[in-house]
Amino acid sequence: MFKTKEDYQLRYIYHTNQHNNAYLIELNLDQYDDLFNSWDGSALDRKELDPELSHFLERASYELPLKDKVELCFYLPESRKDEKMEADSRATIKNNFRMRQFFIDQDLKHNHKKTATYIVMGVLFLITAYLIQESQDLSLLISLLMEGLFVGGWVFLWEAFSIFFFGSRELKDKKKRYYRYLDSDIVFKYRK
């Protein structure tokens, strides 16, 4: 049943749904409004998730392997059961994950623009440094300028490399984790 020691340990920490083998991320609530930011005055379908809940879900997502399914399970008092609020809450939670994916896409576009700008600047600095002719009259000043252009060019190229390979990778990983939540079931259970 358990593939690795880590899988065994996680199954001990997180309960699993026996029907689909998904990890259960379980939370106790007093009311449906506990899901959402109390400072957010927008309509329910536009409300932001509670910051502590967001942090908890993000942490849980990184604890669980990305290849495995997850299921959000919220426990409320039976006296609070309201099917319309249940459906609206599900839709709002999914909408929050879609919104976060949208902002990640915006950040990725911004990273791509910065990467392209840094590559162009780096190449221009390096080409300029190669094209500058040293002259005897201003050799110290020209040498300093050439060295500055070489260093600046390589710094720009390194920054482009860093953003493209490291910064964007983290964002893409986060986007996959939000997609997994979008694809997950959201279940409400009621306690007596």
A few lines on this structure:
This protein has 192 residues and is mainly alpha-helical. It is 60% helix and 11% strand. Keywords: Membrane, Transmembrane, Transmembrane helix.
Write the layout of secondary structure elements.
Elements: H1 5-13, E1 23-28, H2 51-63, E2 70-77, H3 83-131, H4 139-182, E3 185-191
Helix pairs in contact: 3-4
Task: Describe it.
With 192 residues, the protein is mainly alpha-helical. The chain folds into 2 domains: 5-103 and 184-191, 3-Layer(aba) Sandwich (Rossmann fold), CATH 3.40.50; 106-173. 60% of the residues lie in helices and 11% in strands. The chain has 4 helices and 3 strands; from the N terminus they run αβαβααβ. It has helices at residues 5-13, 51-63, 83-131, 139-182, and strands at 23-28, 70-77, 185-191. It has a 3-stranded parallel β-sheet, with helices on one face. It starts with a helix and ends with a strand. The chain crosses the membrane at residues 115-132, 138-167. Keywords: Membrane, Transmembrane, Transmembrane helix.
